[in-house]
Amino acid sequence: MRRAEFVTAIILGLLSVYLMWKAGEGPEWDTEYVRWANTGINIDGSGPGKGFFPFYLALGMLVSCIWIIINAIRRTSPPSQSVEPFMDGYAKKMLLMVGGGLIGFLILIDIISMYAAIAVFMLYYMLILGRHPVGLSVVTSLVVPFWLYLFFDIVMTKVQPKGLRWIEDAIYTPAGSFFRDQSFVTIVLCFVVSGAILTLVARSARRQGVA
User: What's the confidence (pLDDT) of residue 62?
Assistant: First the structure.
């Protein structure tokens, strides 16, 4: 278990450094771009740059990995004191199921869009892995991507991958035109109403004792 903790922390730490480096890259066509220029909190008065969230999320992951390694060296964490195997048969099965779901999610991003891929992954995770009720799983997998769409594409104008061109033209182009014409209050109401629906469904599932 201690060896697994070391190896996992080192791998994730290296991945964090790579993601931080990639987050600072600019568009290939911009030959005058200065690396890290897109990681600021207020770029040209329009809010955080496209690399802001990826950079600082990766930085947070790197700090966490360093802390895990320190605790492992000092043997202050439970895994660093354990002599048990890292994974049993059930853990290996779950790793394959979750890892397979994540790979499928990444593949679907360029096909059906980021938000639809999130919806499919959440439905798979809640319904198949979590064994939550169908109603709660479906509503959650619709509401959460809707929130993400409103937040990133509409409020912050940080456009995410929209999948195949016909999907973008048929769904996201008219949806974007509609929501961008709405007032900020209307957008907030969309958050509130969809959140209320999700809350009601969750409470109903909890009352039935199956959530």
Answer: 95
